[in-house]
Protein: ABC transporter ATP-binding protein
Organism: Fusibacillus kribbianus
Amino acid sequence: KNLKKYFVASKSILKSKRTYVSAVNGVSLQIKKGETLGLVGESGCGKSTLGRTILRLTPSTSGEIYFDGQDINKLSNEQMRLMRQKMQMIFQDPYSCLNPRMNILELVRAPLDVFQVGTPAERLDKVKEMLEIVGMGEQHMMRYPHEFSGGQRQRVGIARALISNPEFVVCDEPVSALDVSVRASVLNLMNQLQERFGLTYLFISHDLSVVKHISDRVAVMYLGGIVEITSKDELYKNPLHPYTKALLSAIPLPDPEKKAAPKILEGDLPSPYNPPAGCRFHTRCEHCTARCKEEAPVLKDMGGGHQVACHLYD
Ligand code: SF4
Ligand code: MG
């Protein structure tokens, strides 16, 4: 609810003058139990920061984060430590988050050690079971991350994230670093695991075609704010926000005969250090009016849970 995350970007010599970057600029959204909410946007729009802030891996500047009705910003460190078991993260580059000096057994078992779950023998059994489930097999347990391919390392990353039986998992670009040939198998695995364990995913990606494959609903993010959110089918059939339309037009169509007029996004993503006033998309929007430069649009429900933040729909 109205989540904000500002970073201090620089302190000038005059101590009074600080520059803030609003990486997350007042985001309100709901993630429903058992669903996959896709979160898309260009790199630098604040998707990863939003994901980390929701998990309290990064403290939020203001706003509320409810998990099962509890505002987790109000939990003590000890309460939060217990809550962590229920909320996990899968990272983009499994290599950079897996300690190269730990073998697969130690890496996957680590969350159980941290949360002191079960006896050592039970933990070992659990690791074997989890590796089997992600398609790795226990014969690999004594090997090290560098001995595996990117796809296998991501399977280890997934086993590690799921071994503490989480309910909610933030997946930050989990297949973006992988070869296109192994992406589908990792996405399928994530789908199967969701069914099997009743998981809820926030699935972050800059790639609308990946999000389409896995999401139930999709939220589109631009410069720290959500500009559109709706069901996957509705978003791809009936996008409303000019930014969403531009993003979708950049996906190559399967049928080259049915060529839609490409809506090329003009210019770069503006700097979050100095975001445009009014609608943050106005510098790149072909429908921009005087009002857009002054007044920031808020998310409005267009019916059936399709929400959009754009003055065109007033
Ligand atoms: Fe474009 Fe205005 Fe809508 Fe922003 S509010 S997306 S500038 S039409
Ligand atoms: Mg990111």
Observations:
- Residues 23 and 49 are 7 Å apart (CA to CA).
